[in-house]
């Protein structure tokens, strides 16, 4: 069968460096760090006392009090960026076939704050069960797309993808496949996460996954630097409106970029550590290139997973060399997690948006916080250290890898009618 073409017609973002897509891009292009001391709770006794939190966020600016109390923050974030994306797309909800419009969303954890608060309240009581009737609906990871579909009346495919830090990208790939197979016209897709909580920070601290550079939070996320010592936890969300090309053209939509392929693979190696030779990362990029029907030398920019962990960064850079060979030296590579921190299940969504905007602006956002070269990395690879670089970006690839060995890659191309 002839596969349909899929384009991006709307963007929304709520991130530690900007509360909409324009602000987010401004933060990315100027190399702003979103890391700062934690304000969500008293972190004084924690090994890590900083994170990349959303700034100036008040749910009452977006929802009435009664409505806000029914949603965990991760669902609130999803609603906000979905609203931004739908408005940005110019979709007329009265003129589309809502039976062919869906919502597929990514969340690695879901309602962590809700779960934590309810259990803590129970433990602090006398043992009598006194749970909020919204406890389960607020907590479950699938509630975000469910609530979005209720708001917009979308009756097409509706579910959440859960693959740890690959969740957001998995959601985008699933949406892409439904459209190009002719099973839907429009998707609200992306991901959200709200894990800056006592249990989130404490749990990742126990794994020794987080940086503990409390004396300099803004420089703690330093992918590919010799002194990298763990990731910085982030929170937020991003939304992409994906649309079948002829559907978008028929309504005169603006088109940001074309989504041309996606790949998936598994490391089949370890619960949390990447394959030491980058096997899963190698396979997923090969799969994405094949799916997009392009050659490695056609890629201009890779937004890497690049979490700032000793093993992960090294494994991914080796995978890039495995896949791209000599053309790896013509690429721009950058980790925007150096600015946003790691948004877990939402990482793939905000980084997909970064790729789309890099194509739109012909600008590669930097990997900030590079101070000391690590001889383990090939010095001839261009990691776009510390400052954004102008270049023609026709094709951009985004990698996201999750605990459990889940690997996803997606590829965007500058739109040409």
UniProtKB/TrEMBL annotation:
Keywords: Acyltransferase, Fatty acid biosynthesis, Fatty acid metabolism, Lipid biosynthesis, Lipid metabolism, Transferase. NCBIfam families: fabF, PRK07314.1. It catalyses: (9Z)-hexadecenoyl-[ACP] + malonyl-[ACP] + H(+) = 3-oxo-(11Z)-octadecenoyl-[ACP] + holo-[ACP] + CO2; a fatty acyl-[ACP] + malonyl-[ACP] + H(+) = a 3-oxoacyl-[ACP] + holo-[ACP] + CO2. SMART domains: PKS_KS (SM00825). Belongs to the thiolase-like superfamily. Beta-ketoacyl-ACP synthases family. PROSITE patterns: KS3_1, KS3_2. Pfam families: ketoacyl-synt, Ketoacyl-synt_C. It comes from the Bacteria. This is 3-oxoacyl-[acyl-carrier-protein] synthase 2. Its EC number is 2.3.1.179. The keyword Acyltransferase applies. It is an enzyme of class 2 (transferase). InterPro entries: 3-oxoacyl-ACP_synth-2, Beta-ketoacyl_synthase, Ketoacyl_synth_AS, Ketoacyl_synth_C, Ketoacyl_synth_N, PKS_Beta-ketoAc_synthase_dom, Thiolase-like. GO terms for molecular function: 3-oxoacyl-[acyl-carrier-protein] synthase activity. Pathway: Lipid metabolism; fatty acid biosynthesis. Residues 3-414 form the Ketosynthase family 3 (KS3) domain. Involved in the type II fatty acid elongation cycle. Catalyzes the elongation of a wide range of acyl-ACP by the addition of two carbons from malonyl-ACP to an acyl acceptor. Can efficiently catalyze the conversion of palmitoleoyl-ACP (cis-hexadec-9-enoyl-ACP) to cis-vaccenoyl-ACP (cis-octadec-11-enoyl-ACP), an essential step in the thermal regulation of fatty acid composition.
């Amino acid at each position: 069968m002839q596969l349909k073409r899929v384009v991006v017609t709307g963007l929304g973002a709520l991130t530690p460096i900007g509360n909409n897509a324009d602000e987010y891009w401004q933060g990315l292009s100027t190399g702003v760090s979103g890391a700062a001391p934690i304000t969500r709770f008293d972190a004084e006794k924690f090994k890590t006392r900083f994170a990349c939190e959303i700034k100036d966020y008040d749910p009452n600016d977006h929802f009435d009090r009664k409505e806000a109390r029914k949603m965990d923050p991760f669902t609130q974030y999803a609603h906000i960026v979905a609203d931004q994306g739908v408005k940005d797309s110019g979709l007329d909800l009265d003129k589309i076939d809502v039976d062919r419009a869906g919502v597929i969303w990514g969340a690695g954890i879901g309602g962590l704050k809700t779960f934590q608060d309810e259990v803590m309240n129970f433990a602090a009581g006398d043992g009598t069960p006194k749970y909020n009737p919204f406890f389960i609906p607020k907590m479950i990871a699938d509630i975000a797309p469910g609530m979005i579909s209720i708001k917009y009346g979308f009756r097409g495919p509706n579910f959440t993808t859960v693959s740890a830090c690959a969740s957001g990208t998995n959601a985008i790939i699933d949406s892409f496949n439904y459209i190009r197979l002719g099973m839907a016209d429009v998707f609200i897709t992306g991901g959200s996460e709200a894990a800056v909580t006592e249990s989130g920070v404490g749990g990742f601290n126990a794994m020794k996954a987080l940086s503990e550079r409390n004396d300099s939070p803004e420089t703690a996320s330093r992918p590919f630097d010799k002194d990298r010592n763990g990731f910085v936890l982030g929170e937020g969300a991003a939304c992409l409106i994906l649309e079948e090309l002829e559907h978008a053209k028929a309504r005169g939509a603006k088109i940001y970029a074309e989504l041309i392929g996606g790949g998936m693979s598994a490391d089949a190696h370890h619960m949390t550590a990447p394959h030491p030779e980058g096997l899963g990362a190698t396979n997923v990029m090969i799969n994405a290139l094949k799916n997009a029907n392009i050659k490695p030398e056609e890629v201009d920019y890779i937004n890497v997973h690049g979490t700032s962990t000793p093993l992960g960064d090294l494994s991914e850079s080796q995978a890039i060399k495995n896949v791209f060979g000599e053309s790896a030296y013509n690429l721009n590579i950058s980790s925007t997690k150096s600015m946003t921190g790691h948004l877990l299940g939402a990482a793939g969504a905000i980084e997909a948006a970064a790729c789309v905007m890099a194509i739109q602006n012909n600008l590669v956002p930097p990997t900030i916080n590079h101070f000391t070269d690590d001889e383990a990395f090939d010095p001839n690879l261009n990691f776009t250290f510390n400052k954004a670089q102008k270049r023609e970006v026709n094709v951009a690839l985004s990698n996201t890898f999750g605990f459990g060995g889940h690997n996803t890659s997606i590829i965007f191309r500058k739109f040409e009618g």
